[in-house]
Amino acid sequence: MADSEILEKNVRSSNNTGSRPLRSYSNPLDQMRYIYALRYSKEAVILDIACGVGWGSFLMANRGKNKIYGVDVSQNAIRLASKYYSLENIEYHCYDGHKLPFADDTFDLIVSFETLEHVEDPVSFINELHRVSKNKSTLLLSTPNSIATKLTSTGKPWNPFHLEEYDKNTIEQMLKFNWEVDNYLGQCPILKKSKELTSYRKFVKNYWHLQSLRNQNILTRIYAWLLSKILLSEDPTIVEDCYPQVIDDAHEPVCHFFICQSKK
């Protein structure tokens, strides 16, 4: 896929608010990630990559004497972030994460929440984050767990805005040259080889299939609404207890949450 096509795909994943909400932003998962990040954000120079409309950047900026650089590929998201979530210690920029306009060794903390699945070359992206990180900087990285979100490991993501989704081992391989994984957490753990895990995979498939129908004519949208009442159970990720937590060997999280240190 050409760079211009990927850029357009990612920009289109924003709705008219610029926040890329849809399913991943209609539950507490994203908020809990940023709340977790607060423990690292005091007195730090921070890169919030794929910041959306800036809710998380704003939250971290209120934490202490820090400086936040919020970056997103969507101009609409950056415009709204600057309008509604602006503080003196935040700067918002519209850039592609593969080529950041920052010097080497700039950031103490890098926050990359639900970004990796949108980039064509994830290793290049991770390396670019390493370039702008200081020695022993912290990277907080979350991304969907393919074992929970795909019907098969070789299948394409059901979410049309995701280029790829990864299991834990694949991400560890991407990180190992430049980042030391201090801790692996996750959100919304589901028991392996269980009916709940199979049910969640089908939920993701049905959700995105119905979303595609809702973008068509009025009769198709009505049909999609009726189907949603039959096919869609309640989203198991819409729970209060979705704070990043330790994942034991018996479970798979809906979303990975890696805590890493830069190796330089």
Strand order of the largest sheet: 3-2-1-4-5-8-6-7
Major beta sheet summary: 8 strands, mixed
What is the chain-wise order of helices and strands? HHEHEHEEHEHHEHHEE
The helical percent reads 25-40%
What is the CATH class? Alpha Beta
The stretches of 5 or more residues where confidence is low (pLDDT under 50) are: 1-7, 9-25
* Whole-number mean pLDDT: 85
Number of helices: 9
CATH homologous superfamily assignment? Vaccinia Virus protein VP39
Backbone CA Rg:
18 Å
> What's the architecture, going by CATH?
3-Layer(aba) Sandwich
* Beta-strand residue fraction: 15-25%
Distance between the termini: 32 Å
Secondary structure: number of strands: 8
Structural class: alpha/beta
CATH T-level topology: Rossmann fold
Shape by Cα distribution: globular
Number of separate domains: 1
Structure commentary:
The chain is built from nine helices and eight strands. The longest helix has 20 residues, at 195-214. It has helices at 3-12, 29-37, 55-61, 75-84, 122-131, 146-149, 168-175, 195-214, 218-231; strands at residues 45-49, 67-72, 90-94, 107-113, 133-144, 179-191, 245-246, 251-262.
Question: Helix and strand layout, with pairings?
Answer:
Elements: H1 3-12, H2 29-37, E1 45-49, H3 55-61, E2 67-72, H4 75-84, E3 90-94, E4 107-113, H5 122-131, E5 133-144, H6 146-149, H7 168-175, E6 179-191, H8 195-214, H9 218-231, E7 245-246, E8 251-262
Parallel strand pairs: 1-2, 1-4, 2-3, 4-5
Antiparallel strand pairs: 5-8, 6-7, 6-8
Helix pairs in contact: 2-3, 8-9
Write a compact overview of the structure shown.
The chain is α/β, with parallel strands linked by helices. It has nine helices and eight strands.
